[in-house]
Structure formats: structure tokens, C-alpha cells
């Protein structure tokens, strides 16, 4: 498939930029102003002001959710004032709590490994935030962020149709590519979305920021979602339920402190003593057990994913081949994707799809996303429901 890059904001257009205080969004804002656009900066307010008991706010690492938000907003406000840029703060605390934090807890307590960044991008950053901008009464031509990604349009219709939707494609700096996090953004929303850093390497971004004397260039990159210090606070609404840690034969190896504290592939902090390295193989919320196994026993040939989204809502009518990522840090692997016929007792959200990999994959985690790429562009993706080991 061949794609055309969506037009970047032109001189004189009104552009809203989602700002976090980091170097990427700050430089994006300035580059658009230099281009001659009318730029408006906006920042989401997510943090509810609660601190883990006994912790110094200054000791907590910068993150999407936490006390660093106060400093981030002040720096964004100062930057915009110095550069004559209109600036707004949009309160999305309620939506973030419902759609991201509660989702995060619910998935872990169901023995799954959630990806809060994917949920946040779909529901908050490209959802509640845009609705908040509309409520303020801001009219704009484009909405831009500092993501390393690109918006493209196919030259031919998808999967034999005449539909040519706006789609997310990989950035020039593949080491910083963030498309995996963006796969659930609807094509209709993408019509106005642009990522001005798509053609730059991260090293170039830092260099341009330093040349412009941006304070953000000196900041450490924030970690995603929330720092570990918040986990116990987040899950404090219900007591953890201990259970058995077992091997693949059902032999008890120890006791876990609650399945929400474990993820597939985990090795550290298991609290068991065996004569060989073991990893979390699977988690069973029904029996409240954590299953451990040797590294090679975590391999699987395929998976079933549901809750699928397709670019432009164009679902393939036949099996397709694509490259699939099962986590942000994994390399895309060639696979066959076909509809899966649900069996008695199966429970799925929407149509389930079977993904069979050319090469075995390690530590496939239910709750994570399987994202499909053709020629570097996302055509669809879903939430991993089951692992196929045979």
C-alpha cells in the first residue's frame, strides 16, 4: 500500500497544541508559531491533588499523573506568556479517573495487563480534552501534539473498498515511534490531528530546542502514567487477596500478595525459591493463582484479540497478513489475521480475531494490545484476550 502525508498546518491556520511542559510539545508549539500559525496552547489537568502518605512531592519522579503537574502547568503558562501564545488549562480529572485509573485497577484485578496510555489517548487526550476545547469555544483548524507519529491517507481504498481514511503511520525516528499508543484514535478525529515532529529524530528535537534556549530541553523525560509510589495508593480502595503461586503442573511454590501486583513475563519480586529462573506464565483470576514457568515455556504461536478497531471502520472481509506489535517495546512480527469462531463458553467484546505469528512470541499478555501494521501504517488493532500456545 502507498500513502500520502496529510497536509501540515499552513501559515495563518489556527492550531491548538496539547502541551505537557516537555521538550517535544514545547518545541512543537514554537515551530508552529514560527511557521506563521495562530497557536493556542492547552494542558490537561489530571491530578486530583492526593499524595502518597509520608512521601515528599519533590522525591516523586515526573509522570503523567502526580504533583509534577503543578510545575508543568506553570512552565507552560510562562512559556506561552513569553511567546505571546494564548493558553488554557482544561480540567479532565473526572474523565481521567473514570476512564483510565478505574480501567487500570479493574484490568489488573481481572488478571490482565492494561495499557493506560492507549486508553488515555483515546478517551482523554484525543477525547475529553478536545471536548473541553470545544466547550471553551475555541475554533481551530488543527490539533497538534509532540508525538512521534505521522498522519497519512492511502492512495487506494482499504481492503478493496473506496474508503481512504486518515491513518496513523510510523515516524522517521523509529526508536521513538509512539504509534502503538495511538491506534484507537478514530479516523474522523485524525482529520484535524497532526504530529509536526514526525520527520525529526529525537536528537534533532533536542538540538532545535537548545538553539531556541528552551528550558524544556534541560528537563528529564517524564515516565509514562504514574510512578510506582502511587500503586499502593491506587489499589488501597480494596484489600488485596493473597493466593497460591503454582507451576504448570499445579505444584504450589509460594503465596502471592494479590494478582494485581503481577504481570505476565515478570521475574523480579516473585518471592519464591526454586532451582531455576522462573517467570509469570499466566494469571488466573477465577482461582486467584499466579502460574510460574521457565522462560521458554512463555512462548506462544498466536493469540485471540477482541474489542477491535479498524482504520476508517473498514474491516477486512478475508484473512490478511500484517506486521503485529504485542507491546510498545516489541518489534513488529509478520502474522496472519483472520476472524475467530467463538467456542461455547467464550466471552468476547465485539468480533474476535485470531492472530498467528510466523515466529513464536514470548510473554503475550492478555489486556495488552495487538496492533496491526501494513507498510508501516496502522490498519487496526485489538485487546489481547487469549494466548494460543498450540
Overview of the molecule:
With 390 residues, the chain is an alpha/beta fold. 22% of the residues lie in helices and 28% in strands. It has seven helices and 18 strands. The strands form four sheets. Strands 13-16-15-14-17-18 form a six-stranded antiparallel barrel. Strands 4-3-2-5-8 form a five-stranded parallel sheet.
Question: TL;DR of this structure?
Answer:
With 390 residues, the chain is α/β, with parallel strands linked by helices.
List the helices and strands and how they pair.
Blueprint: E1 3-5, E2 14-18, H1 23-35, E3 38-45, H2 68-82, E4 86-91, H3 93-109, H4 116-136, E5 142-144, E6 150-154, E7 167-169, H5 187-190, E8 193-194, H6 202-211, H7 231-234, E9 243-246, E10 252-256, E11 279-284, E12 289-293, E13 299-310, E14 320-325, E15 333-339, E16 353-362, E17 369-374, E18 377-388
Parallel strand pairs: 2-3, 2-5, 3-4, 5-8, 9-12
Antiparallel strand pairs: 1-6, 6-7, 9-10, 11-12, 13-16, 13-18, 14-15, 14-17, 15-16, 17-18
- Give the end-to-end Cα distance, rounded to a whole number of Å: 32 Å
Shape: globular
Cα gyration radius (Å): 22 Å
- Element string (H = helix, E = strand): EEHEHEHHEEEHEHHEEEEEEEEEE
- Which structural class do the helices and strands define? alpha/beta
Q: How are strands sequenced across the largest beta sheet?
A: 13-16-15-14-17-18
- Helix tally? 7
Beta-strand residue percentage:
25-35%
Overall pLDDT = 93
The number of strands is: 18
Amino acid at each position: 500500500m502507498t500513502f500520502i502525508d496529510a497536509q501540515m498546518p499552513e501559515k495563518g491556520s489556527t492550531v491548538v497544541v496539547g502541551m505537557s511542559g516537555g521538550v517535544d510539545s514545547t518545541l512543537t508549539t514554537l515551530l508552529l508559531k514560527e511557521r506563521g500559525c495562530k497557536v493556542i496552547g492547552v494542558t490537561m489537568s489530571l491530578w486530583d491533588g492526593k499524595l502518597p502518605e509520608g512521601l515528599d512531592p519533590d522525591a516523586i519522579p515526573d509522570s503523567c499523573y502526580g504533583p509534577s503537574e503543578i510545575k508543568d502547568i506553570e512552565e507552560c503558562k510562562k512559556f506561552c506568556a513569553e511567546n505571546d501564545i494564548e493558553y488554557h488549562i482544561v480540567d479532565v480529572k473526572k474523565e481521567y479517573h473514570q476512564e483510565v485509573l478505574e480501567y487500570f485497577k479493574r484490568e489488573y484485578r481481572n488478571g490482565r495487563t492494561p495499557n493506560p496510555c492507549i486508553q488515555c489517548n483515546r478517551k482523554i487526550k484525543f477525547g475529553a480534552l478536545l471536548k473541553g476545547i470545544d466547550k471553551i469555544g475555541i475554533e481551530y483548524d488543527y490539533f497538534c501534539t509532540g508525538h512521534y507519529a505521522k498522519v497519512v491517507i492511502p492512495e487506494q481504498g482499504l481492503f478493496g473498498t473506496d474508503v481512504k481514511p486518515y491513518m496513523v503511520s510510523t515516524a522517521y525516528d523509529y526508536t521513538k515511534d509512539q504509534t502503538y499508543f495511538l491506534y484507537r484514535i478514530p479516523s474522523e478525529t485524525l482529520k484535524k490531528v497532526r504530529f509536526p515532529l514526525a520527520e525529526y529524530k529525537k536528537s534533532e528535537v533536542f538540538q532545535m530546542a537548545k538553539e531556541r534556549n528552551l528550558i524544556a530541553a534541560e528537563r528529564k523525560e517524564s515516565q509514562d502514567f504514574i510512578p510506582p509510589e502511587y500503586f499502593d495508593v491506587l489499589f488501597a480502595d480494596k484489600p488485596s487477596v493473597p493466593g497460591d503461586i503454582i507451576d504448570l503442573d499445579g505444584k504450589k511454590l509460594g503465596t502471592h500478595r494479590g494478582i494485581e501486583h503481577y504481570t505476565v513475563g515478570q521475574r523480579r519480586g516473585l518471592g519464591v525459591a526454586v532451582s531455576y529462573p522462573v517467570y509469570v506464565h499466566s494469571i488466573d483470576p477465577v482461582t486467584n493463582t499466579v502460574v510460574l514457568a521457565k522462560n521458554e515455556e512463555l512462548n506462544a504461536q498466536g493469540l485471540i484479540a477482541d474489542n477491535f478497531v479498524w482504520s476508517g471502520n473498514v474491516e477486512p472481509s478475508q484473512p490478511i497478513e500484517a506486521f503485529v506489535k504485542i507491546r510498545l517495546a516489541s518489534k513488529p512480527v509478520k502474522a496472519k489475521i483472520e476472524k475467530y469462531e467463538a467456542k461455547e463458553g467464550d466471552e468476547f467484546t465485539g468480533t474476535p480475531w485470531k492472530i498467528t505469528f510466523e515466529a513464536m512470541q514470548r510473554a503475550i499478555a492478555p489486556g495488552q494490545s495487538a496492533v496491526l501494521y501494513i507498510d508501516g501504517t496502522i490498519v487496526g488493532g485489538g485487546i489481547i484476550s487469549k494466548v494460543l500456545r498450540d
